[in-house]
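W.,

You were right to be curious about this one. When I first looked at the sequence I had no strong expectations either way, so I just let the prediction run and decided to look at it fresh. Below is the sequence, 294 residues in total, followed by the output.
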Amino acid sequence: MIDDYIWCYSAEGFHKVYYRQWGESKGDNVILCCHGVMRNLHDFDYIAKSLQDLGYCVVCPDIVGRGQSDHFLDAKNYSYYQYIIDITAILARVGAKKVDWLGTSMGGLIGIMVASQPNTIIRRLIVNDIGPIILASALERIKTYAGKEALFNNFQEACQQMRQNYAPFGIKKDEHWMHLFKYTLKELPDGRWTTFADSRCMFQGLNPNRQEIDMPDIDQKGNIIFWKYWEKVSCPVLLTYGAESDLVTAEVVETMKQYPVQFKSYAIDGVGHAPTLMEEDQISIITDWLEKTA
């Protein structure tokens, strides 16, 4: 396992993007794991071990503004375009020729966008609890805790709030909660606690006025629509989602099936948005599919 960073370029100059690499890259054995909008690379620590055991080189970045990566001074520089450019630089660093892509929530949307591009580097795509639409109702729920600067008087108070915010994850084990706390929270010099992620990331990634690429549409209900990318995806796709998810509903899954995409889906009972991919039964869904589609 290697922890490293690269310098990436933006409108502000250069910024550091950290990543963790499990296993040795042979060029064609790379799987890129991309986290959710306010999460970090350590969400994949458990599944990365299993994937490495299968011979994969697993590359997990902290998207700029999250985890150990730098924050932008101007929040408007957080964009899907920037994230794609940064990830491309990391994949070049590890010598990837083609990749499998595993993305949770935002990471899955970025994967759909990349998979839709001409000459895409994505060989197979796994999207975890996200489809080609962000439902406005789910987005409003997420906004109740994400996108706000979080300050807590002590670690216990911070953990209590995290348990409330991430209750839909369906986490059962204290070990997994402690893992989430460790990599989500940090102590400030004054003794208070906050999150590693820049709270401003939540609202800037899909700003159509700050994008250098064609961006998704917004319908009359306020849903953010990615179907125009989905219809161009030609690689095999696996969708894992929480049976109680408010982002991936039965209607969304059925609509995804109407497109000419080689598509498989699995609902995970007792989970909302989003499956943590820490439990062995969740991990095995993905590893089994990768082995069957090899």
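Here's what jumped out at me. The radius of gyration is 18 Å. And, maybe more interesting for your project: Residues 80-93 form the longest helix (14 residues).

Coffee later to discuss?

I.
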